[in-house]
Description:
two-stranded antiparallel sheet, 19% helix
Amino acid sequence: MGPTEERLILQSPRSPSEWDAYFDLRWRILRQPWGQPRGSERDSEDDSAFHLLLVDAAGNPIVLNARDNAVAFYRKRGYDIIGDAETLFGVIRHLRMAKIVAITAKQSEYLRS
């Protein structure tokens, strides 16, 4: 693997501690920087939503919205700018970035009957 390639695994949180870590990360990345309280990272759709996280795999793109001041960080990790993203709160410019990763997971783990 080259310096910007990572092996990642896509999975649903499985244990109470993985769920706690999942929601904690969601709050720290998406809510805390804007002064939002804990609990604001959850909504009424969470119980019926399909939650996935990358935990440690290189074919399908991962797409994210990066703040202007974080673009260099993501570029060093193999992400490329693919366009503009939404401006948050009318002032915080974001760019859409993507990275190709291979997903190693059993399809049956992600299909609901």
